[in-house]
Amino acid sequence: MKTGKIFYIGCLILLLTIVAYENQFGHRASAREDPSQTLVVSLINAKGEEVGEAMLTETTKGVRIALEAEGLEPGIHAIHFHEYGTCTPPDFMSAGEHFNPEHKHHGLKNPLGPHAGDMPNIFADSHGRVKTVIFNPRVTLAEGKANSLRDADGSALIIHQRGDDQKTDPAGNAGRRVLCGVIK
């Protein structure tokens, strides 16, 4: 029985290591970047304090998000683009729902989805810090397009309290909104 517990604990440690590696150190992407289409988005917490930033860059494969933030609970967190470019603390509900110009269902694993603003979960280390790069192929920074994050009212980048289950409408059971950044 003791050997079985050790095996399961070992598997759990291996899984967490893989998740941390994939989310923290990322892999260099081959998508060409357009430096003229780069935005720096400051992220604030519920107290209105700046706790990180995201650098959004237009690429041939969508938008690249280079994210650095602190002050999160250690573990998995959802990250989404939301429909309005406002971040009113403490709950950031001013950002509206997920960015969803095609009116799809929520979740990367949902056969009727995903929202344009849905993205893979991110991982905060034991100190509550995250440093990662992710891509969203369903959005653009180019103005005038239906899937542009830079429409008339802008959009927001939100990090949630928990991870996204990638299938439950409307927000993947990700919990409250803990960090927010305005995209204009």
Kindly summarize this structure in a few lines:
This protein has 184 residues and is mostly beta strands. The chain has one helix at residues 2-24; strands at residues 33-44, 50-59, 62-69, 75-77, 79-82, 122-124, 130-136, 155-160, 177-183.
CATH architecture descriptor text? Sandwich
By CATH, the topology is Immunoglobulin-like
Principal-axes geometry comes out as: globular
Strand order of the largest sheet: 1-2-3-7
Helix content: 10-25%
Number of contiguous helices: 1
CATH level-1 class = Mainly Beta
* Mean pLDDT value: 87
Q: Termini distance?
A: 57 Å
The percent range for strand residues is: 25-35%
Structural class: mainly beta
Descriptive report:
The chain is 12% helix and 33% strand. Mean pLDDT is 87; it is low at 21-31. The longest helix has 23 residues, at 2-24. It has a four-stranded antiparallel beta sheet, with no helix packed on it. It has 184 residues and is mostly beta strands. The chain has one helix and nine strands. The termini are far apart. It has a single domain (2-183), classed as Superoxide dismutase, copper/zinc binding domain (Immunoglobulin-like, Sandwich). A hairpin with a 2-residue loop joins β2 (50-59) and β3.
